[in-house]
Design goal:
By secondary structure, this protein is α/β, with parallel strands linked by helices. The chain has ten helices and nine strands. It folds into two domains: 211 residues, Spore Coat Polysaccharide Biosynthesis Protein SpsA, Chain A, CATH 3.90.550; 75 residues, no CATH class. Helix 1 runs parallel beside helix 2, helix 8 packs across helix 10 and helix 9 packs antiparallel against helix 10.
Length: 299
């Protein structure tokens, strides 16, 4: 089995170096072949310099690829096109995989041949960081509902593995979503939802583990990230709004916030809280409409 690890990076050479050093320490059984593709998304820091020694030391195993079109989804799709593996594993430049990360991924796909996509546990790397963008479930599970992807995500793109058959069923990552677009995020949510909609098996395994070294220690940083994620959610809802499951989720998201405002009409705290959710949600939907009707506006 050949596993292609795809790492998209932008101006995080320090974190990338830590990741690449940890990838050298992975426990990989002899039955697993692997390659590591670093997709440099137009970085202006020392990213190329960091990658060169690894590409020289492990010629053919570590590959540096420059993608000058700004946007994470450009980089992700470039990685997919260049990957040779049967399994494509995605992680981020602020993550540290567990030593058995690749072995656990391989075990899941061997044990369940129809499996199309696999997510895993995301723990904090540093306890001083805010406990956000982590998944700490310890039970293995099959993804069976749209809400497990769209509303309460059980899989994050920083710890995602996909069988090549899934890539034949869906068209890569949406260039109108993700970092460097107006929609800011949720490119991984949209990608997984499209796999789910094709009725392809998706699983979560706690044994597939990465540690998130995100570095956020302030409440303001988390609020900004929540805002970006909600914009992305609004964009994904708008994109798939004709799907019954998505329409239902979008309806309850909007109606429950409006109901709270009407329930406490004189509470400024309630109004600010609910509008703090509704505003970016509707903003994301608007950006998606721009993307669909005015192509090229988001990227």
């Amino acid at each position: 089995m050949l596993i292609s690890v795809i790492i998209c990076t932008y101006n995080r050479s320090g974190g990338l170096l830590t990741l690449l050093r940890n990838l050298e320490e992975l426990d990989v059984p002899p039955c697993i072949e692997r390659e590591f593709l670093v997709i440099d998304n137009n970085s202006t820091d020392a990213t190329r310099t960091v990658c060169e020694p690894f590409a020289q030391k492990y010629s053919g195993t570590y590959r540096y690829i420059f993608e000058g079109r700004q946007g994470k989804c450009f980089a992700l799709n470039t990685g997919i096109r260049n990957a040779k593996g049967d399994i494509l594993a995605f992680t981020d430049d602020d993550c540290i995989p567990d030593r058995r990360w690749l072995a656990a991924i391989a075990e899941e796909f061997v044990a369940n041949p129809p499996l199309a996509a696999l997510g895993g546990r995301v723990e904090l790397f540093d306890d001083n960081h805010k406990p956000f963008t982590i998944i700490t479930r310890t039970d293995r599970m099959i993804i069976t509902t749209a809400s497990q992807i769209l509303q309460n995500p059980h899989i994050y793109g920083c710890n995602l593995a996909v069988h090549r058959r899934a890539l034949s069923a869906v068209e890569g990552f949406d260039l109108g979503l993700g970092p460097a677009t107006r929609s800011l995020s949720n490119e991984d949510v949209d990608f997984l939802y499209r796999i789910y909609r094709k009725k392809l098996p998706i699983a979560y395994s706690p044994e597939v583990l990465v540690y998130h070294n995100h570095g956020r220690t302030k409440d303001s940083e988390i609020e900004a990230l929540k805002y970006a994620y909600t914009i992305g959610r609004g964009a994904v809802y708008c994109k798939h709004i004709l799907d019954k499951d998505v329409l239902k989720l979008a309806y309850w998201a909007v109606s429950s916030s409006l109901a709270n405002i009407l329930k406490f009409p004189f509470s400024m705290k309630t109004f600010k809280k609910e509008m703090g959710y509704l505003s970016p949600l509707l903003r994301g939907a608007y950006f998606r409409l721009l993307n669909d009707f005015l192509p090229g506006k988001n990227v």
